Amino acid sequence: xxxLLSRQALLFFYVILLAVIMxxxxxxxxxxxxxxxxxxxxxxxxxxxxxKVNKLKRINIxxxxxxxxxxxxxxxxxxxxxxxxxxxxxxxxxxxxxxxxHDSHQLLWVLYFLLACCFIxxxxxxxxxxxxxxxxxxxxxxxxxxxxxxxxxQLLQLGKAILITLPIWISLFLLFPxxxxxxxxxxxxxxVTGLADSLDPGSIENLVQSDKLAFRAIFSGSLPPxxxxxxxxKVYEDFDGRSWNVNQRFDRRQPGSRQSANPNIExxxxxxxxxxxxxxxxxxxxxxxxxxxxSVRPASAYLVEARRPVSQRLSYQLVSELQxxxxxxxxxxxxxxxxxxxxxxxxxxxxELVANAGxxxxxxxxxxxxxxxxxxxxxxxxxxxxxxxxxxFLFDSRTGFCSHYASATAVLLREAGVPARVVGGYQGGVWHxxxxxxxxxxxxxxxxxxxxxxxxxxxxDPTAVIAPxxxxxxxxxxxxxxEQNQLQASWRRFSAFNYINQQLLHLDYYWSVWVLGFDESQxxxxxxxxxxxxxxxxxxxxxLVAALLLWWFLRLQRQPPKFAAPVLLIRRYFGKVLVNKxxxxxxxxxxxxxxxxxxxxxxxxxxxxxxxxxxxxxxDQQALLLLEQHLKQNAKTLAKLNWPEKQASAR
Amino acid sequence: xxxxxxxxxxxxxxxxxxxxxxxxxxxxxxKIIYILPSRFGLWYILLLILLYLLGTNYQNNLILxxxxxxxxxxxxxxxxxxxxxxxITVSCAPVLSAYAEETLxxxxxxxxxxxxxxxxxxxxxQQQPAFTxxxxxxxxxxxTERRGYFSLPRLTVHSYYPFGLFNCKxxxxxxxxxxxxxxxxxxxxxxxxxxxxxxxxxxxxxxxxIRSYQSGDSLKLMLWKRLARDPTSPVVKHAPSSPQPxxxxxxxxxxxxxxLEVALSKACYLMxxxxxxxxxxxxxxxxxxxxxxxxxxxxxRCLREMALC
Lengths: 651, 309
Known about the structure:
The structure holds 2 protein chains of 2 kinds.
Chain A lengths: L6 H17 L6 H12 L10 H21 L1 H24 L6 H18 L3 H21 L9 H21 L22 E2 L3 H6 L4 E7 L10 E7 L1 E2 L4 E2 L22 E8 L9 E2 L1 E5 L3 E4 L3 E4 L7 E8 L10 H4 L8 H13 L3 H14 L3 E2 L10 H9 L1 E2 L1 H14 L4 E8 L2 E3 L4 E5 L3 E9 L2 E5 L1 H5 L1 H6 L1 H4 L2 H7 L7 H22 L3 H13 L1 H25 L6 H10 L12 H11 L4 H16 L3 H13 L1 H5 L5 H6 L1
Parallel strand pairs in A: 12-13
Antiparallel strand pairs in A: 1-5, 2-6, 2-16, 3-7, 3-14, 4-5, 6-11, 8-11, 9-10, 14-17, 15-16, 17-18
Chain B lengths: L1 H18 L6 E2 L6 E4 L1 H19 L3 H25 L3 E4 L3 E4 L3 E9 L7 E4 L7 E3 L4 E7 L4 E4 L3 E5 L6 E7 L4 E5 L18 H6 L4 E3 L11 H6 L5 E3 L10 E5 L5 H20 L3 E5 L2 E6 L2 H13 L1
Parallel strand pairs in B: 4-12, 15-16
Antiparallel strand pairs in B: 1-3, 2-11, 3-5, 5-8, 6-7, 6-10, 9-12, 10-11, 13-14, 16-17
């Protein structure tokens, strides 16, 4: 059956498809998006009829060519993106050719699927709301296809429909069982954010310029003191004279999970982290993690890593001990004692320091003293350093950021014979008292040193020596006014914008905790709580059923009766005899017939008939009352009225 | 294979007959409304499963939320589809007749307390369904083949509303019959079947002359098409002013098979012509005969006799 699509429906499909192409731009090469848009333009004056056969042939040839191009570039895009590209191609071609309602089925199907794919790329609340709006628009156009054109969608009905669907929707989300991932998802190449695998003297300064969120932390106990909030993300062990790199051993998977045998209860911190998209595996942890959530696994040097690169928000639970990190592998000390032949002045300085200091602790004290007493400065804009970067920093510029200090300290320690390494991560964060979470942005990126002493890797933060405000009050406190301005985007300076932005961030936080972070364990919790409250729920349910029944009953009563009052009366009192009255016969005729069979009651029947006629046709209230009286008085007589069986069967 | 299918169809029809016996007026209740997913509905369910898998695999709550939302839309569609058909009272016009090989437009009345959307009615699946939104009465086409007296086939009332995910239908067994008269077959020898061929020439003559209407002229002679075009000056066919002394008898010869059909068709044509001209005619079929008369009722009676012979 041929039902043509309306212009409005076509327009809606165009809008939705355009939005989807925009949203999925990450999965599409630029040339491909351009081709899709051109294809869409092909149909632009959305006319109904066209020489369809001709077009079909043309579109098929174009689609085949594009498919060929896509196949050639499949290497670059990866399987998942390829699938999205194919779907987009098919939906675009379908939309260009679409004429009838029947054609729109495939279109709708693919649109729904693509809208779901958008959620893989975006999970922030604003974009999610946009996608939801697109989904609703799709549903609306879908509805319009099968609804009468004359009928406007009524708000009341829509409200009722939402009232029906909402509880089902929410309870399905909360209670429907979830499966473990069934197969490995092909991940696409995407821009990596956060700390890189190599630490140049300038890399942290660049990172700090970014205002982007790195992760949020929620503590089940109280917030540990700020000096303890060193979030370890990367450990740099290879030094080439200028920059620090992550050792190869971090690429290997750590065998098994590392659960502590006897966790020291007093020193443990339990917390949940919601990590933002970084497209790398490394995650954040305080001190030594002893208990891991399912979604993460331990990595070398007591770090934590995700099972696959974090391409969407990831929430995980950890328990950490805030203490020195134990040795991970036997070779670790050796690995962190290697020195390079660059930076000769530093080597000399290290030898001097060793000679003065008796122990490792003394050495640390000496280094701190040096940074504190000699004119060293903490700055976001240090001068560029040459090849012997440590020498240039320690003896010439004396101005640097945390990475400079950490790098110089680690080299000094290594030259002095103490195993040492640079740790990259984040320090501190902004605590939101009302919402009870710690917000850690990229600007909180930090680098410090770990050296081996007393059977463990001790933390030493040279920045805390040179600029203690940085650790205690955050980055802003340690920087000059100019440097602070450099960090803040111009629009952030207006307090109103700032306020709104902060509120949006809080909303985003609740969104990620309640919607994005909802997982199996929380579901299990919910089920258990429901089970515990079973009796209460049963009570509530029965109350609800009772209320519904009551409502239904009241509604039934309020409905106007099907028949007028006198008719009902007659029906009640004449009961059996009335069965014999043929459908079309008038009541008076029936009474007349009755009279012939019941000679004794002629007067009574006549009276009833006349009262009935008056009550029904003249709307006479008094007649109605009289009729009721009469019927009541003579109920018994009426029940015994005769109707000859034979005649009834003969009719 | 084919016999198996036939068997299944027969079994299904019997089951339907038992479930909903014939009735003049049927109200669609829960018992006789059948809701099945359409082809698109099945694809939609596949989509739901795929989205669920995608959501669990990516551990993406938003995709899961979306798939659950679409599930609830599916359930909503189910309820709305049912409500769209529920409580409609279906009945039909009492007398139905058509000529063979003609499409009989059956006026079906759908009465509902609330407005319904996109209802479709058909008798056989291959035929174009009739659409209705608000109107109470719709004309459902029924193609007739042979002459005779038949009971109305099962009327299917169905709708894809909303979303086209479900085919919500009810197959009603309405207790009505319809007549199929022989197909009129134009014939020159207008009286070849009749015994009395007295005024053959005159009949042919006054066929194409017309004159203006004067009071007292039979309405049957009125040229209605012309009147619609020009209402001020009515025109009537020129009819012989003198009444026919003897009525025509139309006699069906005692043949059978194809010859009988042809004879009936020609007789039908003749009868209509005579009726149009307001001439009395009688009918003789085998041993039965209908006395000569004129008028719509008489015509109906004769046509029925011919349909049944």
